[in-house]
């Protein structure tokens, strides 16, 4: 248990839709919310800062727009989110007042995580709420996002929030006890109580709940992001009298994903843990070996081919000639500028672009080697050469 005189620990809690919404009636489960916020109050009294990443808005709004989880399309879900969010926040607010604390709504989109300035602004807002003793309730702004510009699931959103604020713990509450070595419905399935390398279990996690947007696969992806930021992740059943403190105190079964012993810095963690790929570069085997041997900048002549349309400051994924991802880094050029440079290798970059430049596509201090610490992204099927 935390000593209240020590520095406050920050905990991010992700709550799945199935815990918050009755699957048949699509109404709030006030009994669960009561148990959850009672435990939040208990942790706050012990000196913890608690941030909630709450699903449930879409599920709670489906009945209002006359749809079901099975029948709803994209526009139906966007409308349902707009209807369900007031219901969700009202439930949290009513119960929160019973325990004497205020809540605040923080709606985010993909750009709030992928663009560094917006990332920092969002972080400052969350920290200010915590300083004021307010419990932030974070959700994706589902009423305006589309598939191309959305985070995609609240598991990874919670992991990005944990990374953003430097949280010590991420608790993902779901409807099962944690990660199993196979489908938990199969005979002989065994709960995995401790995980160092989540990639070992990815094949065993295929599945999706009726109300939620992701299954155990997204939870392991979220755990991997949190691990690299030095954050411990717990995947646990939310149906308990003390759903949070019982996990932190080791009183019940769950899966604990251990943090990396040498976490990345805040900047490197932001670069390395992406939610969408802006663009990618293929580099030669010789350059790949040089990068692995020590930090160096990526130059125009190092690029064999590229994929994507991106702007300066976007994060690019670097692959070797076999399609193995090696690193991620901030581009100093737009995709069009890089195409021009690698299509004309015999012409100085200054002459091609019309301004003075060394042609460093990614500077060494903006390049993060993955070193088998991250879940890798598959290379785009068709990277285009400079010509």
Question: Could you explain how this protein is built, in words?
Answer:
This protein is an alpha/beta fold and 387 residues long. The chain folds into two domains: 10-268, Acetylglutamate kinase-like (Carbamate kinase, 3-Layer(aba) Sandwich); 277-385, Archaeosine Trna-guanine Transglycosylase, Chain: A, domain 4 (Roll). It has helices spanning 17-20, 30-45, 57-62, 74-98, 111-114, 116-131, 154-165, 216-228, 245-248, 266-272, 285-293, 335-343, 349-353, and strands spanning 10-15, 49-54, 103-108, 135-140, 169-174, 194-195, 232-237, 255-257, 279-283, 298-299, 303-307, 315-319, 325-330, 360-362, 367-369, 384-385. Helix 2 packs across helix 4 and helix 7 runs parallel beside helix 8 (216-228). It is elongated. The N and C termini lie far apart (61 Å). Residues 1-6 and 208-213 have low confidence and may be disordered.
Which features does this protein show?
single chain, 387 residues, alpha/beta, Carbamate kinase, Archaeosine Trna-guanine Transglycosylase, Chain: A, domain 4, 2 domains, eight-stranded mixed sheet, 13 helices, elongated, disordered N terminus
Q: SSE layout and pairings?
A:
Layout: E1 10-15, H1 17-20, H2 30-45, E2 49-54, H3 57-62, H4 74-98, E3 103-108, H5 111-114, H6 116-131, E4 135-140, H7 154-165, E5 169-174, E6 194-195, H8 216-228, E7 232-237, H9 245-248, E8 255-257, H10 266-272, E9 279-283, H11 285-293, E10 298-299, E11 303-307, E12 315-319, E13 325-330, H12 335-343, H13 349-353, E14 360-362, E15 367-369, E16 384-385
Parallel strand pairs: 1-2, 1-5, 2-4, 3-4, 5-7, 6-8, 9-12
Antiparallel strand pairs: 7-8, 9-11, 10-14, 11-16, 12-13, 13-15
